[in-house]
Amino acid sequence: MKIATFNINNVNRRLPNLLAWLRTAKPDAVSLQELKSTDADFPVAAFEKAGYGAVCQGQKTWNGVAILARNTEPVLTRTALPGDRDDHEARYIEAAVNGIILTSIYLPNGNPQPGPKFDYKLDWFRRLRSHAAKLLKQDIPVVLAGDYNVAPAAMDIYPTKSWDKDALIQPKSRAAFRTLVEQGWTDAIRTLHPSKPMFTFWDYKRNRWPRDAGLRLDHLLLSPEVAPRLTKAGVDRQVRGEEGASDHAPAWIVLK
What we know:
The protein is of the alpha+beta class.
């Protein structure tokens, strides 16, 4: 079973790119983030034609998350992260696909920091850890996939000081991610590629893609019930270099 996470950065604008990647990569399940689309404008028909069922939680202009499943319909289990009834941003969706609970997470960016946006990021992390702990207690196969907007370690960002004040690499952001993983989750990409950067994001500005000035922001965390099934993991870097591409590339895993 091949599972991918892909921040598509506007699903309708990048739809030709996304459909071409689906035809080539043939993932069995995909978590999408940053749809920048309402539910009504989400291209369900195009995905059905490509052989994918879909569930989504859209939002006008910003945010938005979805889960696609090849030759089946995802069984929707949750459309929001619990813990804050006043949070109406579309950043979390959860569904069952082929016996696995799969999420699509679009964690807040947190900039500028310090400030309310960074506080929101850390609180969102706290709520995610609380929900993730409950999932672990159920002893079920879970994949927490998505754009976490955190480069967890120095290896996960190109050599630079230009991001030193950015929320993506702050000690508190990294500590929040580390505390989540230490609940018992397996960072799939880093587990199989312990010494390679494995970047998933290259900003459009300052020629960062041609310079390979990237960050690893997109992660797939595996529960103990599914981690032993991990056989492969990677990043489809070439997708980032295509015309009209998202500033992210798909990260993926293969499970026995």
